[in-house]
Amino acid sequence: MELSGPRSGKYEFRVWHLIGKSWRREFEQGDFESCSRAVVVAARKVDWLGQVLTPPDEPLLSYHLELLRGLTFRFAGYPNVEDHDHCRACWAKISDFDSPEVQHEGYLTKYVIPNGAGETQDDWICTDCFPKLRNQMRWQLPEAQSRSLKTTPPVPRLVEHSDILAPDPSFLCRSFA
């Protein structure tokens, strides 16, 4: 599996298979407006991709969390509505309900769903997970909020899937010259 871009502002991916002693391109698709959209479509074509992006020894990192890489968040209290959301990393409940297991504030971002329709959704990261993952996920905060948050340095790691050894999934969304 190869993901490349942006080229002329678009991303693409290719699926390769080893046949005998030669690599053959099996599938290619391009013209994606974002790296996230390319990863979502590629995961539908390559069964193991979602598993590689969700390493078993790193339960906070997931394929869906990868789609939030590089976004800007803001610290916010949960709005006064009779509903709840979950932290995208650990699935902790975030709400305005009074309960010991519920967090009442967290880090919020508006995410463009990579389905091509331009729809958005709000995504929350809890106050425990945000500082742990901020550097690794390249999350941004408005300047005033950024000064008050202490972060942990990223930890280099490898992700293994059967006979495939790949670097941290962030390699999927880097720019290629």
What does this entry look like structurally?
- There is one protein chain.
- The protein has 177 residues and is of the alpha+beta class.
- It has 2 domains: 1-58, no CATH class; 61-156, 2-Layer Sandwich (first zn-finger domain of poly(adp-ribose) polymerase-1).
- 18% of the residues lie in helices and 34% in strands.
- The protein has 5 helices and 10 strands, in the order βββαααβββββααββ.
- Strand 9 (158-161) and strand 10 (164-167) form a beta hairpin.
- The longest helix has 11 residues, at 35-45.
CATH architecture of the largest domain: 2-Layer Sandwich
Overall shape: elongated
What is the N-to-C order of secondary-structure elements (H for helix, E for strand)? EEEHHHEEEEEHHEE
Ends: how far apart?
Answer: 18 Å
Task: State which percent range the strand residues make up.
Answer: 25-35%
Can you give keywords for this protein?
10 strands; 5 helices; elongated; 18% helix; alpha+beta; three-stranded antiparallel beta sheet; first zn-finger domain of poly(adp-ribose) polymerase-1; 2 domains; 177 residues
List the helices and strands and how they pair.
Layout: E1 2-7, E2 10-19, E3 22-32, H1 35-45, H2 49-52, H3 63-66, E4 74-77, E5 84-86, E6 93-95, E7 105-112, E8 120-126, H4 129-137, H5 143-146, E9 158-161, E10 164-167
Antiparallel strand pairs: 1-2, 2-3, 4-7, 5-6, 7-8, 9-10
Summarize the structure.
This protein has 177 residues and is an alpha+beta fold.
